[in-house]
Amino acid sequence: MTNKLEFEIVGHGKASIDINRGIIAGWTGRNADAVNHHIAELQEIGVPPPSTVPLFYRVSASLLTTQETIETVDGTSSGEAEPVLVDDGTRLYLGLGSDHTDRKLETHSVALSKQICAKPVAPVLWPFDEVEGHLDDIRIRSFVRDDANAEWTPYQDGKLASIRPLGELVASSPAASGALRLNAGTAMMCGTFAVLSGGVRPSRFFRMEMIDERLGRTIEHCYEMTPLPVIS
Predict the structure, then answer these.
(1) Predicted local confidence at residue 218, as pLDDT
(2) Cα separation of 38 and 208, whole Å?
(3) Which of 36, 103, 191, 208 makes a 20 to 30 Å CA pair with 110?
(4) In this structure, is the dihedral angle defined by the CA atoms of residues 98, 102, 106 and 110, taken in order, positive or negative?
């Protein structure tokens, strides 16, 4: 299934990209202690540890969305800000997304918990070759709140230096296509950061930003979760 998404390619105008493959790279921390910390915080809410690291989960391409509202099953899901690689068949791009995950279902199956939720992505991309030389310095932050008028609470904060090199993830992914390229139409989320405090938790609103201080630019995206009623 193909999912056409509209993006602003910074410095190059607008583009429609057909996404036909979605991949979630999990457990991608460069530091083993950080990976174990994230595994431990998920175990606290009943999520079993991975069989190996990293893992590449397949999800439907139709789950990716640039919309600012997503519908979820009850209120047990939460976001995870992370870098996203998108390949349109001509060029590789770096973007920002949220591996939104159903935490209740995650205790039963990580793969199913990822497949059931929409995957919000910011409608802005940077050409990968423009940031490749300073990827480790790029910073990602996320914030949560439960009321539209409440203050944002910092939720995650980290630099790509704490994630396995993106080129390494590309090369080892099931969609690798030559040096630093993915198969045309692939979008791959590349891993997240531990929660700052309070543990993994759901929220009504999730805001994320990716900051490139070297080139003086930022990608931002915010979305709201609308829970559907659970009928039994």
Answers:
(1) 98
(2) 19
(3) 208
(4) negative
- Residue 70: the pLDDT is 97
Task: Please count the CA atoms within 13 angstroms of the CA of 108 that sit on its side-chain side.
Answer: 8
DSSP string for residues in the chain = --EEEEEEETTTEEEEEEE-EEEEEES-BSSHHHHHHHHHHHHTTTPPPPSSSSEEEEE-GGGEE--SEEEEETT-EE--EEEEEEE-SS-EEEEEEE--EEHHHHTT-HHHHHHTS-EEB-SEEEEHHHHGGGGGG-EEEEEEESSTTSPPEEEEEEEGGGB--HHHHHHHSTTB-STT-B-TTEEEE-----BSSS-S---SEEEEEEEETTTTEEEEEEEEEEEEP---
- The full length of the chain comes to 232
**Residues 6+ away with beta carbon under 8 Å from 63:** 22, 115, 117, 118, 119
What's the pLDDT score for residue 17? Answer: 98
Q: Which residues contact 57 (CB under 8 A, 6 or more apart)?
A: 23, 24, 25, 26, 110, 111, 114, 115
Q: Which of 84, 37, 32 is nearest to 53 (CA)?
A: 32
As beta bridge partners, residue 176 has 182
Task: Note the pLDDT tens digit of each residue in 127-169.
Answer: 999 999 999 999 999 999 999 999 999 999 999 999 999 999 9
- Residues in a beta bridge with 225: 70
Cα separation of 226 and 73, whole Å?
Answer: 9
The end-to-end CA distance of the chain, in Å, is 30
